[in-house]
Amino acid sequence: MHSQSITGELTIYTAASEKQHLQEFLETGDDLEVNLSQVAEMDSAGLQVLILMKQEALRRNKKLRYTMHSKAVLEVLEMCNMTATFGDQVILT
Description:
This protein is of the alpha/beta class. It has helices at 15-26, 44-59, 71-79, and strands at 2-10, 31-42, 63-67. It contains three helices and three strands, in the order βαβαβα. Helix 1 (15-26) runs parallel beside helix 2.
């Protein structure tokens, strides 16, 4: 399994570059994990990137999991009623 972390902001200001990094990450294997524990801030643009990457992984027959959701990520997922949408285990601390 290949892993990658997103750190700092996942917002409209960083969405394009994070999308590029994640698209490159999709090329590294078929079983992938993105650690979200260091995401300090996320908005709807960041959520769109996460949705897009899940869809792209599915299209390419790859397994992509989001793990260790930070408080900022969980707040956006809950606000948009999408906590269970990705099918990833969410552990509340």
